[in-house]
Amino acid sequence: MSAPAAAVAVIRAELEDAYIAELLSRPGNVAQRVVRALERSGWTIAPTDPQNGPQTPA
Question: 39 falls in which pLDDT band (50, 70, 90)?
Answer without folding.
Answer: very high
